[in-house]
User: Fold these one by one.
Assistant:
Number 1:
Amino acid sequence: MLDVIWVGGNIASMEVGAGPWGAIRDAALGVKDGRVAWIGPRADLPGPPEGMARKVCDFPGQWITPGLIDCHTHLVHGGNRAREFEMRLEGASYEEIARAGGGIVSTVKATRAADEATLLDSAAKRLAALTREGITAIEIKSGYGLDLETELKQLRVARRLGEQAGVTVRTTFLGAHALPAEFEGRADDYIDFVCAESLPAAAEAGLADAVDAFCESIAFSPAQTERVFRRAAELDLPVKLHADQLSDLGGAALAARHGALSADHLEYTGEAGVKAMVAAGTVAVLLPGAFYTLREVQLPPIDLFRRHGVPIAIATDSNPGSSPATSILLMLNMACTLFRMTPEEALAGVTRNAARALGMQATNGVLARGKAADFCIWNIAEPAELAYRIGFNPLDRRVRAGDEDLAVNSEARRV
Ligand code: NIG
Ligand code: FE
């Protein structure tokens, strides 16, 4: 006996090899113990739904998609950087602001000063904006503490957020995000500290699911990044990398050499990097919010990713500097308009490929028998509408592990 069976609408399962969108029209979806136990055309059900499940739910004419996954965020942080936004409008560049002591290190100051409850409260509001748009899983990085205590504080808050909001949280340790003031002029010493103290402490406390670094002229060199990655391997933690965002330091190839789950940003990645990624199974995570905010002009090599078969994910990169974004639907639109991705590619980027970027593909990212019953119910006539609109949220309900959020967005029901 199933717990629930959903009938009456359509499903975009996002399964590979199941046609466009993995679409099943006039579908049925059965849930048992938080997992998908039956999925297919309603006409194929072995009997009447009432006889198969304790509860029958209707989703008349609507679309179900897998729960959306935001696979790259810096959601937990103190303060904001609206002043830098103004400075950029007055002509300063992101790099100039960072070199003048603004940028990431200014958020570090605010995050160190904030207590756990304050961090939790501010991040919960940003997370609520994302769950209202159908996010059921999210990655959250540290990297605004840089000292041991604040890095662990950020990661603890990230884990608590997930429990509180009914969202699956994957935490990533990003100690090598920026050089803290107390290590001025001593970047190698700071990397020593990350490898000897903060990273092992985060691993020991069970607070890190992965390890990330920012490989860039304003952050850490490829050699310093590799030291962090070798330490991560010793601690049995997978890696990912902020790579080739502002210049080509060979970051994508470096990430691939270390078997990274993902390489992220990638505006300056060349063909050698793309080939290395495909060989390693590394996902390309593209961040249109940062591209837009920094008014980048160099596009990530989308055609090369397509040609070589690199899976592409899309994320908000939600952070107070380069991407103060809390709308995954806007990212879908930007992925299409700015990066010329198709709406189907964009949706795969926040479902199937985002799951893979987090190493969660065994359980999440597509709707199929045995997968987590994490899904969204949308008031749309065709799935391309998810990427088409700007600033409109058609989510009706969000279901996680079989449990339904009540009236997530009752506004949408009236449209
Ligand atoms: O992904 N590139 C480095 N890190 C963040 C920006 C963080 C910040 O500006 O506070 C990013 O864009
Ligand atoms: Fe980032």
Note: The chain is about 35% helix and 20% strand.
Number 2:
Amino acid sequence: MRTVDLILRKRGGEELSVEELQFLVNGYTSGDIPDYQMSAFLMATYFNGMTDRELSGFTEVMMQSGEILTLSDIPGVKVDKHSTGGVGDKTSLICAPIAAAAGVPVPMISGRGLGHTGGTLDKLEAIPGFRTDLTLDQFRAQLKELGLCFIGQSDEIAPADKRLYALRDVTGTVESIPLIASSIMSKKMAEGIDALVLDVKVGNGAFMKKQVDARRLAQAMVGIGRRLDKKVQALITDMNQPLGYAIGNALEVMEVSQTLQKAGPADLTRLSLELAARMIFLGKITSTLDEARKLAEDRLMDGSAYAKFKQVVAAQGGNPQALDRFELLPNATGMREILSPRAGFVSAIMAEDIGRASQMMGAGRSRKEDVIDPAVGVILEVKIGEKVEAGSVLCRLYYTGEENLDESADLVEDAFRISGTRPDERELILEVVG
Ligand code: URA
């Protein structure tokens, strides 16, 4: 088998067999297939998609590229949550401690920022000392003891996705239904969970811009879960503006801390509670979804979710005091305000441009080897529907270097639309699949 022949066939729209996909995935993971050939294959897949058979085969081959964990010695229904990627999306750091405080064991394997979107691992690593590179034995032990552990993808779990994820990030091949579905499901199905809650984002800050595509992505992932005998439920949620007000790793950790202390933004709190409720329900802690919603709210309100998060931060080497004393988190050295050019109502905020600007200032990567700057990002002062005056502050950019600052500021300035009439209220949770 020759890699170039498989690329040509994929480029021509032909279906590849499971053996051929295995050859590509294993060859790339072992280093026998170089980045340039895999990039060509990814781009051909981006344009031509995959059949259902290819998607199942590709996902299983990626899943089998590493160890498949068994967590059956840990009592309870193990449930994880994953998002397809958004801007300001820090719900994992809120819903996971809520669900764990309600008694659900949550083994969470998370990803890094991808394209213009942030990643849970990069956010956690903004907490001084926090380690996401635990061994699988440490992961298991912490899950047993605290009911929650966050780790990054190692070379042990779905290593093929780890390598492909980094390659897609820098080759313009992220926004593809089969590539996103196989990436998420291969690592999630390898981590030994019983159930999974997915947050499929749709809108200008998501990889899926149209609801019909988000639905297809959700159905693809729910279908993969079903074939592997796992309960998977997906919420399709609005990403036509950043979630919450903070974008950028340490800034988002601050907002997580506020939200876990009941002082978070309404949209972020609402979505995190709903995701936690779905985790609690799939985790069979309650017999109805309404009971699960009530329990999630109780665990947020009684402070036990925040206490759980602090325990987990300490257990993974992080300084839990940084969650109360933000001066202990990485802080930016400069700040620039973006002002409204006119009076009116905020009618749109192009979340992708805000994410892109934040990435350009150092919050994300544009090359695989780039190192993240945890301190930088954007804090919105307004959200869609709010009234603004000419010259009032729309948002603040926090930076540590001036290299891409002007370009980022231009991007952010153009991201706001101000109109004469108040826009209609928008739904946050649009659909449930599965
Ligand atoms: N999250 C992932 O893990 N993979 C993707 O491709 C997109 C979001």
Note: The chain is about 45% helix and 15% strand.
